[in-house]
Amino acid sequence: MSNQVWKFHNDVDTDQIIASQYLLLPDIEAMKQYTFESLDPSFAGKVHAGDLVVAGENFGCGSSREQAPSVLKALGIQAVIAKSFARIFYRNAINIGLPVIVCKDLYDHVEDGSHAKLDLSAGTVTVGDKTFSCTKLPEYMQNILSAGGLIASLNKEEA
Question: What is the pLDDT of residues 48-90, one digit of tens each?
């Protein structure tokens, strides 16, 4: 089964993912309805669990707010696939258990609203009859994601 693609441009910053005025809300559940509000005000109402965010270069630039990957995960985004990521966003996403995949060629071959299938363990994304190779996450990072994030992974190791 393939999942819907939500395509965004280069340099999507954390304020475009979740604007700073919503950080005052009590929790991620309350914040998630405002995800990508400045880019697509109805995004949170249209996205479905398992959908994919595809973006260009430098996704997640700006501040180091952990709420940016957290609202994407709370909406059920399966993964963010981009040409490149801001380093702190990438790390925060892994820490909270949101897969972030570097795939240089996908962006130019997929449209907003099309469908794609991500195979995280193989490091591939398939759109129609084309399969794109992505940066395959090392096993330790896949284990962190499988556990639901860094804290969950560390707690699992202690048990």
Answer: 999 999 999 999 999 888 999 999 999 999 999 999 999 999 9
Q: What does the pLDDT look like over 8-30, one tens digit per residue?
A: 999 999 999 999 999 999 999 99
In order, the DSSP letters of the chain are --EEEEE--TT-BHHHHS-GGGGGSSSHHHHGGGTTTTT-TTHHHH--TT-EEEE-SSBTBS---THHHHHHHHTT--EEEES-B-HHHHHHHHHHT--EEE-TTTGGG--TT-EEEEETTTTEEEETTEEEE-PPPPHHHHHHHHHTSHHHHHHHHH-
pLDDT score for 58 = 98
Q: Can you read off the two tokens belonging to residue 128? A: 């129609």
